[in-house]
Amino acid sequence: MPVTRTILRRAGAQHGGAVVEVTAAPVVDVTVIVPVHNCRPYLDRCLTSLLIQRVSKEIVVVDDGSTDGGAELADLYAAHHRGVVRVVHQPASGGAGRPRNVGLSLARGEYVFFCDADDYLGPEALERMLAMAERNDSDIVLGKVVGHGRRAPSSMFDRNAERVPLEDSAVYNSLSCFKLFRRQMLQRHGIRFDETLTVGEDIVFTTHAYCHAGVISVVADYDCYHLVDRPDGTSIMQRRESRDPVSWIRMIKRPIELMTGHVRPGPLRDHLLRRHFRLDAFANLGRPFLEAGEVERKEIAAEVADLCDRWLTDGVRERLGAVDRGRIAALEDIDRLVRLAHIELAVMRRELTGLRWDERDTGLAVSGRVALEAMEPAGHPGLAVGEVSLVLKPRQAGEGPDSAVVVPVASDGEEFAGVVDLAVLPSGVWDVHVAVACEGVVRTGRLGAERDQRIARPAPRMIGGTVALPYFTRPYGNLSIDVGGHVVSPPGIVRLIRARWAAWHRLVLDGEITMGALTPDPRTVRHLVWRERGSGRERRVPVVSEPGGTFTAGQAVGRLRPGTWDAYLELDLGGPPVRFRVEAEPELVAPPRTWWRGAALRTARPYATAGKGRLSLVVRATGPKALLRRLLR
C-alpha cells in the first residue's frame, strides 16, 4: 500500500513551542502501467509479480478491449487490492501505444515503469532499480532483461553502472520501454507513445526519453524483467508481419528524425546513428533479405539507400564493420548484397588439428581446418575461403581492437598451419581466433573447441624470463595462451634442503625449486616471504639464487612478531607474483631456539605442518609476569 509520509516540524521549541505534525499527501514511488489485451493466461503471474515489489507503488491496468476474461480478472485484483491496483477499460485500439498513454496520464508516481501483461518482474526488480535511481538522481534506469523463448538485449548489462553516458556505451541498443523513467522528465518534455504505430511505438518513446535524460543508470546484477514468448504466437511482436523489413525501415525513420532533431551533429549523434544502421537497417540485409522475394529485395535496398542518403556520415561509416561498409557500396547491386548476406550468415566450421612447440621452443605451432558453409535455401553460392590468419585478442579490460596480434598462416584449401611467436606477446591472457577472408569480408571465430581428441595441452615454457602457458578454456574448450601466469597457475615445487641457525638468531634456509620441464632463471626468484597466519602480515627476505634452481635465504627471527608464520618462495614469471609454499621434511627442520630479549623470553620453533609437510614457524614472547605465573604453577 502507498505509505503516507509525515513531516514533524518543531515550532519555537526553545521557547516551549508545540510540535506540529503536518501530514502530506500519499506518496507513490513507482507507477507500474500494464496494457492488457487478451492476456488472461499470463495476467495472474504478471500482477502477482508486481504486487510483491517492496516499494511504494500503484499499478494502473489499462484494459484495451479484452474479450478473453482478462478485463474481469483485472477488476478482481482491483477489488482485492484497493488503493494499489486501478483498472481502466477502453475500446480496443490495436496497439500498446494508446493504453500506455492513458496509464501515463493517470500516473502519480515519481517514477513510471511499463510492464506488458504477458511478462513479469523479478521479486526485487523495482526495489533495486528505485534504489539505483534515488542514489544517482537518475532519469532512466535500465534493469537487466532476460528472455524466455525470446531474444533479450544483453550488451548493456555487462555490469552495474551508477551513471553511464549515451556516448561510448551500449545503453542505446535497448530501445524497449521496459525501464524505470522519471515521470517529471516525461511530463516536462511531452514524451508520449506514438499511437499511430502498432510496432515500434516504444522505440519512438524511449528514443525521445534518452534525448532528455540527464542521468542514466544500469542494474545488471539482477534479473529484473522477464520477457516471455507466448506459445500461441499471438503477441504483436511475434507476428511475422511485425518484422516486415520494408515496414520496419520506414518506421525507424521516425525515431531517427526525432533523435537527430535533439542531438547536434558530432560523435554522440554518430554513435546513436550507428545503432540504427546496424540493428535496424543493415540487419534487414541479412537473413530477412535472403528470405525475401526479388521485388521485395529491391524495396529493402532502396529504403536502406534512402537512410544512407539522409543520415550516413563519415563518423558513422568509421564505426561500421567491413560487412556493413561492403553493403553500403553494393546497395545498387542486388546480387552482391545476396552474396554478402550469405557470407555473413554462413556457418564457420573450424577445427584444431595440431598444437605443439616448435624447434626453438618459443613458437607455438598451430594447425587446423576452416571453411564457410552458406545457409539454405538450396542453390546458394559456393563460398571460397581466401586468406587465413590467426588472431590473438587480449582479454584484459580496456584493451581495444587495435591491440590484437595477427599471425599469418599458410593455407591449402581448408587446411592451415602457422607459428605463434610468443616472444612478441606482452604479458596477459590471449584468446586465439582463426580469421578467414571471403570476397573482402573477414569472418572470425574462436579456435579449439572442436579439435582432435589426441591433442594435449602443451607443457609450459620459459621465454625470456616469462612463463607461457597454453591452455583450453572451461567450459567451452577454446585455445588461449596465458603469458605470465595470470589465470593459469604455473607448475612448481619448492623443497627445503636444509635449515640451520646462524648468528643473531637468523634462520637460514637452503632450498630448491623445480618447475616440471621448466628451468627457472635465477633472476625470476624474488623473495622468501614469511606470512603471519592470523593477521596476514608479511615479511620479505632477500634470496640468493643459483642456476639449477637452488637458493638461500636467512630471516632474523627476532624481527618477527609473535604468531605463526608460513614460508613462501615468490617468483616473478612475467605476470603477477607467483608464490609456492616451502615444503619440508620434519628431519630437515632446524630445532627450536630460545633466548632472552630484555626481560622477555623469546622462542622460535620451526616445524613441518601435519599432512602436507609445509614449513612454518611459531614465534612466542613471554614476559616476566607470565614467566612467574608459569613457575608458580
Automatic annotation (TrEMBL):
The keyword Iron-sulfur does not apply. It holds the Pfam family Glycos_transf_2. Keywords: Glycosyltransferase, Transferase. CDD domains: Glyco_tranf_GTA_type (cd00761). InterPro entries: Glyco_trans_2-like, Nucleotide-diphossugar_trans, TarS/TarP_linker. Residues 31-186 form the Glycosyltransferase 2-like domain. One of its GO terms (molecular function) is glycosyltransferase activity. Residues 247-340 form the TarS/TarP linker domain. This is Uncharacterized protein. It comes from Planobispora siamensis. The lineage of its organism: Bacteria, Bacillati, Actinomycetota, Actinomycetes, Streptosporangiales.
